[in-house]
Amino acid sequence: MSNFTSIEQVIQKLDAIIARSQKNKSPNGYFACTYRSMTLAVLKGVQQNKFENGGRMVNLDIAFADRYFEALEQYENGQKCSNSWYAAFEAAKNPRLLILQHILLGINAHINLDLGVAAATIMPYRKINPLKNDFAMINEIISKINQKVQESISEICYPVGVIDQLSNGNDNLLLDFAISKARQTSWATASVLSHASSFIRPPLIRMVDNAAAQIATNIIVSPRTPKQILAKLKECESSDVAGNIAVLSATEV
Question: What pLDDT, on a 0 to 100 scale, did the predictor assign at position 171?
Answer without folding.
Answer: 44
